[in-house]
Amino acid sequence: MTTSLIGILNMSQQSLANNQTALTVVSNNISNMNNTSYSKQTVKFNAIPAYDTYNWCSSIGSLQIGHGAEITGILRNREQWLDNYLREQNTAMGYYNQIGGMTNNIENLLNNELSSTGLQKQLSEFFSASQALTAEPTNNAYRIAFLQAAQGVANQLNSMSSTITAQRTQAVGDINDPDTFKDSTIKMTTDSLNEKLKQLAEVNGKIAQSCASGSASNDLLDQRDALLDELSEMIPLTTTTNENLTVNVYIGNQTVLKGGEQKLFFNAVQTDDDNNPVKIQLVDSEGNVKNDNINDTLTSGALKGLLDVGGTGSLSYKSVLNEIDKIAKAFAEQMNNIQTGIGADGVADSIPYCYANTDPKTLTQATEPLFIASDGGDFTAANIKINENILNNTDLLATARGDATLEGSSAIGNSANMALFNGLESLKIPDLNNGGTGQTLSEFIKTLVSDVGSKIESLNNSATAQSSIVQQATEKRAEKMGVNLNEELSDLIKFQRSYEASSRVFSIANQLLETLVNLV
Q1: pLDDT at site 110
Q2: Torsion of CA 56, 58, 62, 63, to 10 degrees
Q3: CA-to-CA separations, 514 to 13, 25, 508, in angstroms, rounded
Q4: Are the C-beta atoms of residues 366 and 331 closer than 8 Å to each other?
Q5: Considering the domain boundaries, does residue 95 fall inside one?
Q6: Which stretch of DSSP H or E encloses residue 198?
Q7: Is 129 found in the same domain as 62?
Q8: Same structural domain for residues 228 and 298?
Q9: What are the backbone angles phi and psi of residue 365, rounded to the nearest 5°?
Q10: CA 442 to CA 422: how far, in whole Å?
Q11: Do 67 and 137 fall within a single domain?
Q12: Taking the CB of residue 203, how many other CB atoms lie within 10 A of it?
């Protein structure tokens, strides 16, 4: 009997300790209910193996008497498959989040600077000035207005090119200015990626130490999983879990991190190829290149978004800039052809003439181009520039046109060249093609805005759909790992009652033991 009472005391004392631990876990859960990276913890109870005792009260020789309960672990409410699924979706969402903001900048730029308040407006003002000069081809004030309107078109193209180039430089740097690369978004993103891998390696090391001394800290495991969530937004990663609960991280078929050791580091390198200005390398801790270019391995994630928008993708800064360059090139070349008398085949047709600012007016053959490329290369939106010789001397602007008989003062009032400038508004230019057919400047601009807008709308629709998938996956995981206040309050009452009952059992057993001692 004495042994049984002492056993009851021991079991009730163990139960008191168990319930106290359980109440502590409940308290910890409630304290972290607003911590999104925290995994709800649950106490795991197991029965202590029963022991044999002689049954002297009956014919049965022995009995198996329970020995109470013990806590065998504090478990996290976590499902690995939910983590893996969410991280896979996070990678796709990371791509859309990264590329979405930049492409929306492109759309806003085109809507603002190609619309009726931007380039379209400048072209409209130019053709209005051209019409006015047609009526009075010798009017110097009208010639100045014509040249200023032409300069306005060039300035607008310069501004657009500068804005897009600046945005691209911010994303991936400028290959002609290496100093811009160190502050580029892609360089900082790569550095952040390495820093998170470093943190993960450190957490892995702490987990290994924790496991070696008993069981892994749930808080460390939560830190590990939070870092993996963040990494999954940046790159498509594969992970495996070791026996000591540390994780290995792979990109493609290469091991980036193994337990507490970071094997490889991501290195963003500026190239000399403007179409592919950045490549991502994998290097070891000593800087030795283990994979010179993993761009193709990065199929999704924020890093992939930066590579796409900074390269030559269909919604890249470069692709849009190429289209704007087409406008600049077509406008400048057509204007110069009209100004200097070169036909569409590159051969001079009739002769353009300028009105000399003399009295009486005289005609001289035009030789100065209206536009020049500031860097001496092919015309682009960046280098298109009005010829300052003509800007400073309007007598060099060709407004008349004809053959050699127009020379002198015999054809004052001729505005045939202005008719060609005016016709540029409706001219279908072969270089501005749409499926092989030429377009007018206005048509090409509208097509460009529509095409880019359509692609961005499709991208945004995909991003919205992906966001819904991520939200559903997040909510599903939160149901499993998140703290439910109602459940915690229920557990609080349950363990409180259990604690009180164990205390009562301990008190009664203690009283019975005192009675037994007094009897002796």
Answers
A1: 83
A2: -110
A3: 17, 35, 10
A4: no
A5: no
A6: helix 185-212
A7: no
A8: yes
A9: -70, 135
A10: 14
A11: no
A12: 23
Give the list of residues 6+ apart from residue 278 with CB closer than 8 angstroms, or none. 172, 173, 186, 268, 269, 270, 271, 306, 307, 310, 311
HSE, side-chain direction, 13 A CA sphere, residue 333 = 20
Residues 149 and 122 sit within 8 Å (Cβ to Cβ): yes
List Cβ<8 Å contacts ≥24 apart for 423-431. 424/127, 424/334, 424/335, 424/338, 425/123, 425/127, 427/334, 429/330, 429/334, 430/344, 431/326, 431/329, 431/330, 431/333
* 301 and 372 both lie in a single domain: no
348 versus 117: the higher-pLDDT residue is 117
What is residue 428's DSSP assignment?
-
Number of domains in the chain: 3
Q: What is the rounded distance in angstroms from the CA atom of residue 498 to the CA atom of residue 515?
A: 26
Residue 478: inside a domain, yes or no? no
Q: What is the reported pTM? A: 0.85
Contact yes or no for 416/410 (Cβ under 8 A): no
DSSP 8-state code for residue 416: H
d(CA 491, CA 496): 8
DSSP label at 275?
A: T
Q: Residue 81 corresponds to which tokens in the numbers above? A: 């498959």
Nearest Cα residue to 301 out of 219, 393, 230: 230
Q: What is the pLDDT of residues 403-442, one digit of tens each?
A: 766 655 556 778 889 999 999 999 999 888 766 678 999 9
C-alpha 388/C-alpha 376 separation (Å) is 15
Crossing angle of the two packed helices 317-340 and 441-481, in degrees rounded to 10: 170
Q: What is the DSSP secondary structure assignment for residue 184, as one 8-state letter? A: S
Segment 268-304, tens digit of pLDDT: 999 999 999 999 999 999 999 999 999 999 999 999 9
What is the pLDDT, as a whole number, of residue 181?
Answer: 96
Rounded CA-CA distance 43/30 in Å is: 14
**Is 147 contained in some domain?**
yes
State the residue range of the domain holding 208.
178-270+277-310
The answer to the question of residue 475 being in a domain is: no
Can you read off the two tokens belonging to residue 491?
Answer: 């557990």
